[in-house]
From TrEMBL:
Residues 19-117 form the O-methyltransferase dimerisation domain. This is Uncharacterized protein. CDD domains: AdoMet_MTases. PROSITE patterns: SAM_OMT_II. InterPro entries: COMT-like, COMT_C, COMT_dimerisation, SAM-dependent_MTases_sf, WH-like_DNA-bd_sf, WH_DNA-bd_sf.
Length: 371
């Protein structure tokens, strides 16, 4: 029998864990429904804990049965840590003998990331990654593992016959969500890097953000260091859809072919999209760009994850995020999150002599690579 040496309690816990992981998909999907209804916005803008009845009317839930359903959704979301739920005595109406108990919900740091118009919102990240086309890659993964889709490099291709980048550029709703998702992350992550680690940019006069999207990171760097000459290298369709950004030049090109000359290259959330072979090709072009500018002193600044290698003393939630991102890249882009050893191996293969890793961005790190 399975679990032969386990106690009764251990077996029950294991079975409960299987239930929880099986239903784990309900977490992102219930958060998605909450964002679609505007629940985090309503809770945050209320100016104090919001009652179920006020919440229901703010988000447009009117039928009594649906209000009761909303209460159950809020109870689950509060259990996940998204809101803080408590029970208060509602004021007794005229003629009522006793005040009814009513549930109220307060915001938490978790829900603050789901408010749509906040500068640090992760709502586009949630909506993009719960998009059905994207989730459906997983239904082709087993066939891909078994080699039944030899023409596909990874799950997304096996499921949809094209790459994530093709679907991003051709499905208008996905393109908008993808751009929003990248811009939201770039805005807060780069503001944090420039504020907490200004030394990374010390003595640099020019920087190229390779695969820099619509220029949000470059703008955040320009805001922090107004004298820096900032350029974005991007694919044609991305540049065509990006509004001009004051002080930032856009160059159309392919990072596998040529990277414009600059003191520094930024690669944020780019290398984890690619396998090692492609990563080395991109890094070689970046190394050439910074050595053309300065024989010594240039650098490549990478913002990506350095995966924990399983040793102790690490934050469990950050390691969980690293594993989730790693298998997400496996399924959707053919890329990977890398351990320190794996980073050093691809950097060395691309000709870099040393690197400095600063693990100070939650699950991500800043890697400064020197030619
Ligand atoms: C995951 S996004 C990261 C965007 C941005 N660096 C950020 O973190 O917000 C990867 C970017 O790489 C760009 N990209 C993909 N292939 C490229 C290529 N061959 N040359 C230049 N950019 C490319 C994509 O258009 C996309 O904007
Ligand atoms: O958070 C993401 C999401 C994507 C993504 C999701 C759905 C699509 O149809 C395309 C792309 O891609 C990402 C990515 O490439 C990255 O480097 C970081 C985050 C995400």
């Amino acid at each position: 029998m399975a679990g032969g040496g386990s106690t009764h309690k251990e077996l029950l816990t294991a079975q409960t864990r299987v239930w929880n992981y099986t239903f784990g998909y309900i977490r992102p999907l219930s958060l998605m429904v909450a964002v679609q209804l505007g629940i985090p916005d309503a809770v945050h803008s209320h100016g104090g804990p919001i009652s179920l009845s006020d919440l229901a009317s703010t988000v447009g839930v009117a039928e009594a049965g649906k209000v009761r359903a909303l209460r159950r959704l809020m109870r689950a979301l509060s259990h996940f840590g998204c809101f803080e739920r408590s029970v208060t005595k509602a004021a007794a109406g005229e003629g009522e003998r006793e005040a009814d108990e009513e549930e109220v919900y307060a915001p938490t740091p978790f829900s603050s990331y789901l408010v749509k118009d906040s500068p640090t919102t992760a709502a586009p990240f949630l909506l993009l990654n719960t998009y059905p086309l994207f989730v459906s890659s997983w239904y082709s993964m087993a066939a891909w593992f078994r080699g039944e889709r030899p023409e596909s490099a990874y799950g997304f291709e096996a499921a949809h016959g094209g790459t994530v980048w093709e679907s991003v550029s051709s499905v208008a709703e996905l393109k908008a969500l993808f751009n929003d998702c990248m811009a939201c992350d770039a805005r807060w992550a780069i503001a944090l890097v420039t504020k907490e680690h200004p030394e990374v940019f010390k003595e640099l006069t020019s920087l190229v953000d390779v695969g820099g999207g619509n220029g949000t990171s470059a703008k955040a760097i320009k805001d922090a260091f107004p004298d820096m000459r900032c350029t974005v290298l991007e694919l044609r369709h991305v540049i065509a859809a990006s509004p001009a950004v004051e002080g930032v030049d856009f160059v159309e090109g392919d990072m596998f072919e040529h990277v414009p000359t600059a003191d520094a290259v930024l690669l944020k959330w780019v290398l984890h999209d690619w396998n090692d072979e492609d990563g080395v090709r991109i890094l070689r072009r970046c190394r050439e760009a910074v050595t053309r500018a300065r024989e010594r002193g240039g650098k490549v600044i990478i913002v990506d994850m350095v995966m924990s290698d399983g040793d102790g003393g690490v934050d469990w939630e950050e390691v969980e995020a690293q594993h989730l991102f790693d298998v997400y890249m496996l399924a959707n882009t053919g890329g990977a999150e890398r351990t320190e050893k794996e980073w050093r191996r691809i950097l060395t293969a691309a000709g870099f002599s040393s690197c400095k890793i600063t693990p100070d961005l939650g699950p991500r790190s800043i890697i400064e690579a020197y030619p």
